[in-house]
Write a structure and sequence with these properties.
Shape: globular
Distance between the termini: 60 Å
GO cellular component, one term: cytoplasm
Bound molecules: magnesium ion
Structural class: alpha/beta
Largest sheet: 6 strands, parallel
Protein name: HAD superfamily hydrolase (TIGR01459 family)
CATH superfamily of the largest domain: Nucleoside Triphosphate Pyrophosphohydrolase
InterPro entries: HAD-like_sf, HAD-SF_hydro_IA, HAD-SF_hydro_IIA, HAD_sf, Nudix_hydrolase, NUDIX_hydrolase-like_dom_sf, NUDIX_hydrolase_CS, NUDIX_hydrolase_dom
GO molecular function: phosphatase activity
Domain Nudix hydrolase: 271-404
CATH topology of the largest domain: Nucleoside Triphosphate Pyrophosphohydrolase
Oligomer: single chain
Number of strands: 23
CATH architecture of the largest domain: Alpha-Beta Complex
Number of helices: 12
Length: 411
């Protein structure tokens, strides 16, 4: 049973332990049984409109034992983040509980014209003017932080916009990505486990695949989904839980087993993008490689498909822009989406999974431009003497191209 397999239990609150002021079925008994077994318990909530002591009181009123040091709220974790990065003055779109947590961490709340962080939490009274001010401070260099990015929250009349709606308003108008502290991002998980014995067996129990399960898996932890099972098609999808239980009593069900989570060797992408790559041979059968300025690795020319472009037009344009050569497309070599080599992290924090259409191309004009800003060097290589520091997926693409190569100049 799950309760015997772990030493540390991280619980989401809303929808797992309680809804509103009512404990959920089995929650009080299950948490008491874990305490009896001397298990370590943490409570993690994205709710930014509360404090750790208010959560303790709320749990205690439901006859659930809880201590302040066991509670990680997104507001408290945001205050710890600002403190740890030495940010001292914040413009806050959030309620008094968030401001209180920030002040406890030594952060000054400012309404004036300068600040070193903009903190977005829950604020029912936020105005368009507030959003404009926040955007202005971020444009002036303030760090953009958000307690969480939940898109909606459940209300009796149906889902209503949550903190994520304000975060998006500021993100689209500044072009800046926020530091998001709440689940599924790592800060709260790190706060929850930072003082534990490294050999502890830790499990996250949550009801939201997009925050609780994804977040735990990104942090390398196992995760149990409470409530209706929700299966994503890919076996390695980070949002698929390792076990599913109906309520917390399921932790003590001898028939429920937990699968082992082995964190794949790539970060979880937020989007899938169409890409193109071109293998260009010269008249001697040598292949064109460019040394990329961003990572110093050699690779074949590659890039994005722009709106209203065919993939053939995209690779012809990319090769012209990156190398100065005019090419024509000879044939499609393959379409590649292996996540290990095709998921990229950008310096701004964006992570994308590329589906790359790889073509063999033939030079029909132009001349090699070695001075493009994206390249440190560019040259044709004998296919038996390729540089060692190649982008990881390119040897496979080159091998596929050579295997299909019918021209007589390749041997
Ligand atoms: Mg929840």
């Amino acid at each position: 049973m799950i309760s015997e397999q772990f030493d540390v239990f991280l619980f989401d609150l809303d929808g797992v332990v309680y809804i509103g002021d009512e404990p959920l079925s089995g929650a009080v008994e299950s948490l008491a049984r874990l305490r009896e077994k001397k298990k370590i318990i943490r409570f993690l909530t994205n709710d930014p409109c509360t404090t750790r002591s208010k959560i303790v009181n709320r749990l205690n009123r439901m006859n659930i034992e809880a201590h302040e040091e066991e509670v990680i709220t997104s507001g408290w974790a945001t205050a710890q983040y600002l403190k740890s990065t030495n940010l001292k003055m914040a413009f806050v779109l959030g309620n008094n509980d968030l401001k209180w947590e920030l002040r406890q961490a030594g952060i000054e709340i400012t309404n004036g014209s300068s600040c070193d962080a903009v903190v977005v939490g829950w604020d029912n009274t936020v105005t368009f003017y507030d959003i404009q001010r926040a955007a202005k401070y971020i444009a002036q260099g303030a760090v953009f932080a958000a307690t969480n990015a939940d898109k909606t929250f459940p209300a009796p009349e149906g889902p209503l916009p949550a903190v994520g709606a304000i975060v998006e308003a500021i993100r689209v108008s500044t072009g800046k990505r926020p530091v998001i502290v709440g689940k599924p991002f790592p800060s709260m998980f790190h706060e929850a486990i930072k003082n534990l014995d490294p050999s502890s067996r830790i499990v996250m129990i949550g009801d939201n695949p997009m925050t609780d399960i994804l977040g735990a898996h990104q942090a390398g932890l196992q995760a149990v989904l409470v409530g209706e099972s929700n299966t994503y098609p890919a076996k390695n999808d980070f949002r698929n839980a390792d076990a599913n239980i109906r309520d917390l009593l399921g932790l003590f069900d001898p028939d429920i087993q937990i699968k082992k989570w082995v964190r794949p060797n790539y970060p979880w992408p937020e989007s899938i993008k169409p890409g193109v790559a071109g293998i260009v041979f010269d008249e001697y059968g040598r292949v064109l490689l460019m040394k990329r300025a961003d990572n110093g690795l050699w690779g074949i020319p590659s890039g994005h498909v722009e709106p209203a472009e065919t993939v053939e037009q995209a690779i012809i344009r990319e090769i012209r822009e990156e190398t100065g050569l005019e090419v024509q497309v000879k044939r499609l070599i393959g379409v590649y989406s292996d996540p290990v080599s095709q998921i990229f992290s950008y310096p701004n924090g964006e992570i994308a999974h590329f589906i790359t259409n790889c073509f063999e191309c033939q030079v029909i004009g132009g001349s090699l431009n070695k001075n493009h800003w994206e390249t440190l060097d560019i040259q044709f290589f004998d296919i038996h003497q390729l540089p060692e520091n190649l982008l990881p997926m390119h040897p496979k693409w080159l091998a596929d191209a050579l295997e299909q190569q019918t021209s007589s100049y390749i041997r």
